[in-house]
Each structure stands twice: as structure tokens, then as C-alpha cells.
Amino acid sequence: MSTPRQLKFGAMVHGVGHGWGEWRHPDAQADASTHFGWYQGQARLAEDAKFDFVFIADSLHIHEKSSPHYLNRFEPLTLLSALAATTSKIGLVATVTVSYTEPFQVARQISSLDHISGGRAGWNIVTSWLSATAENFSKAEHPPHAVRYRIAREHVSTVKGLWDSWEDDAFTRNKHTGEFFDRGKLHSLNHQGEFFQVKGPLNIARSRQGQPVLFQAGTSEDGRNFAAEYSDAIFVHAESFEESKAYYADLKRRAEGFARKADDLSILPGIRPIVGRNPEEVEHRYQQAVALVSIEDAIVALGRPFNDHDFTRYPLDEPFPDLGDLGSNSQKGGSDRIKRQAREHNLTLRQVALDFSRPRREFVGTPEQVADQIQHWFENGAADGFIINSLLPDGLRCFTEWVIPVLQNRDLHRRHYTGSTLREHFGLAFPANRYTAARDEAQATQAQKAQVPA
């Protein structure tokens, strides 16, 4: 009998909050973004609830109007390496850009996290959309959108090649013979590409899960194709059930077009649930979250997908401005969606900004109501699981203590971890080392030829 399909959950652990105002909540820890104990507590909540992973987002450029969390926070791989020592099962996913790193550096760092954690590392692959990032890395200009995805393909392919430098049984460590490793099972990559030249081999072996799990968030045409070809899991902005369902079907179809199994690709919408034990508490908590979003902050936040465009230059209560192709070289999928919705619904700038920043109602309710909505999306082709992003200081605790038990009682979420690696949590097969697989295939072909009569 096959194992019943179950939800996958990740916790987006985001310090003082995703937006500009969450830190002002009376119960918020105002230094959470650089307080390791706070991160430990959030990771413990998620692991106790048997989440698949915790996720640390990142970017490499700030300015005086950046959100409080972005202004002062930990570097993801450093933070997750520390969390690896205080957790035992939950996956640890870090955002690392391909546009401003070298493949050898990334391969080594994420593989180190994978070893430190016992096979629980994941890489959220981003191309970086803020053009001013280039000024922090001695670059004359930010690569155009299409070029960034060419860089991404080559970068990820190179990293995966480096991760296979050592075959799984290469290290013999034979003290009697003095052989530390089998020289025939160490391989140089010798990559010569458009953007990178990397000889290899990598100076760290494969981990217990073979290779780290790959995550990506792609909504543009280039992003969707990249995610369908390379990713094990995809983050997506959950605008509505209908939109998520269409995205889900599209990405599964594209994955099959790359000769992959649709079930090997998990679609994980990001949601911001607000839970209360009764309708009155639900509404009180929802209004708390709404009150943390001022129009001034919402206008600044709206600029993010448009390369930090300054929207204060436009009248708030007139139709959303015609921006032309602004955003196409930054967060293309997100900016295109905002412009399309504003045009189709004839929205003002104020309406668009507040809609962008304020919590939606889809996942707001009692534990049973929120569980109902999650189950509906999961069972009707809109999601394989969800990324939980908390708006209120106790948001993750309320979700894990109130909603997760409801889902467990419905057999939609695990009560116990059945594996110890992130790849096992996702039900993904152990990836064969490419050199081992090629040698095994060659030997099998040779054996078949030997059996054919002359």
C-alpha cells in the first residue's frame, strides 16, 4: 500500500517581520532579527510540530527605507549552521543568490551545512532583483532578467556537478594499507561555460542525503521554466485559490516536459495565517495585524518588486499609475501581477498598496476554519504544502499549537518524523552520483554485449 499523501510545511523565520510595522506590536521582540535565542525558539516550535523545514530569506542590498528586518539581520548559512546544532530533524533552507556568488563557494558552504546538520540542508536559489546590489559587489551593472536566468542555469548545474566530485564510497580510510581514498572515485568537473570556469574537485564529500534539496520561487516565464527543470520545491505567492491552482498545474506540466515526475516537484504557497480560538478572538487578532500596516509603509513596500521604485511621487487616490515595463528587470512575475490586477479592477494607488501589504482573509479563522482552507487547497490541486509566514509575534506558536493538531487528526500531517534528512521528509529519492551511475551503466552494457552470441 502506498503512503497517504501528506502536507509539507516550512516556517519562514523572519526576525522582526516581513513588513515594516510588525516590530511595533507590544509583544514583538524588537531585536529578534539579530537574537539567536529568538531563532532557536522559532525553530523549536516548527520542529516540535514536525515541520519539514525552516527557511531563512536574504538579500544583499539595503537603503534607509528598507524594512526593519532587512536593515539588521544574520547571514542565512551562518545562522542555520548554528541552528543545526540545536535541532535534530527539521530541514534548514537558506537563500543564496547565483548572481553574486561563485559556484565553488556556494557548493562548499551549503555542503558544509548539509554535513553539519546530518543531511538537512536546502538551497533557495535566487537571482537577486534589486539592481543596486551590483554596487556592493564591484559590478558595473546589474545583469538583465534573462541573463540572470542564464547565469542561474549554469551556476546550479556547476554546483550540482561539484557536489558529485566524490563518489559515495570514495573515502576508504584504510589505516592498514595507508589508503585514505580511492583515487578512481575522485573527479574534477573541468567546467568551461559562458559565465563560470571551475575545475574542481570540491573539497568536501557528499552528505547523507546525497545532494541538498533545491528550492526556488519562479513566476515569470524564465522563472517557471528554471524552477520546473531544477527545483525540488517551489515557493509561490498565494494570491487566490484559482491562481494557485493554475500555477500548480502549469509547473507540474512543465516539470514533466523536462522528463521529471510531477510528484517530485512540491508547490508550496506562502500564506500568513491568523488563528483565534473563537470568532471574536479571530477578528481581534486580524485587526491587530491590519493596524500594523500604515499607508506610508505600504507605499514603500510596494516599491520592492519594482526595484525599490518611489511611489510617493504619485497621487494616492487616483488610478494606479501606468508604469510601462518598470519591474521587468527586477521581480518580473510579481510586478507584472500587480500591474495587471490594478488595471483589471481599476484600483487606486492606495488600494493597491494596502492590498499588497495587509493580510488577506483566506487563511484567517478558528483552527478548524484555517485547517479547512489548507485541506481544500491541498486536496484540490493548488498546493502540496505551505510556507507559514507569521504576522503576529505568537503567530507560529498559535498555528503549531492550534491548527497542526487538527490536520494531524485528519491524517494530513505527520505526527512523527519518519526520516532524518530533508530529502526523506520530501519523499525524494537518494540521487545517484553521476560518475558511479555512468560506470554502472557502462558495466551493464558491457555485460549485455558479452551475453549476445557472436
Give a quick set of tags describing it.
single chain; 454 residues; alpha/beta; TIM Barrel; 2 domains; eight-stranded parallel β-barrel; two-stranded antiparallel sheet; 15 helices; 12 strands
What does this structure look like?
40% of the residues lie in helices and 11% in strands. It is α/β, with parallel strands linked by helices. The protein folds into 2 domains: 8-283 and 362-434, Alpha-Beta Barrel (TIM Barrel), CATH 3.20.20.30; 294-357, no CATH class. The strands form 3 sheets. The protein has an 8-stranded parallel barrel, surrounded by 5 helices. It has a two-stranded antiparallel ribbon with strand order 5-6. Helix 7 links the parallel strand 8 (233-237) and strand 9 (266-271). Helix 3 (76-84) runs parallel beside helix 4. It is globular.
Query: Which band does the percent of strand residues land in?
Result: 5-15%
Main structural class: alpha/beta
Give me the strand/helix succession.
EHEHHEHEHEEEHEHEEHHHHEHEHHH
Helix run count: 15
List the helices and strands and how they pair.
Layout lengths: L7 E5 L23 H13 L4 E4 L11 H4 L4 H9 L6 E7 L5 H14 L4 E6 L18 H19 L27 E2 L4 E2 L14 E4 L4 H10 L2 E5 L3 H17 L8 E6 L2 E2 L3 H13 L3 H8 L29 H14 L3 H9 L6 E2 L1 H13 L5 E5 L5 H15 L12 H4 L8 H18 L3
Parallel strand pairs: 1-2, 1-12, 2-3, 3-4, 4-7, 7-8, 8-9, 9-12, 10-11
Antiparallel strand pairs: 5-6
Helix pairs in contact: 3-4, 4-5, 5-6, 6-7, 9-11, 12-13
Can you summarize this structure?
The chain folds into two domains: 8-283 and 362-434, Luciferase-like domain (TIM Barrel), CATH 3.20.20.30; 294-357, no CATH class. The protein contains 15 helices and twelve strands.
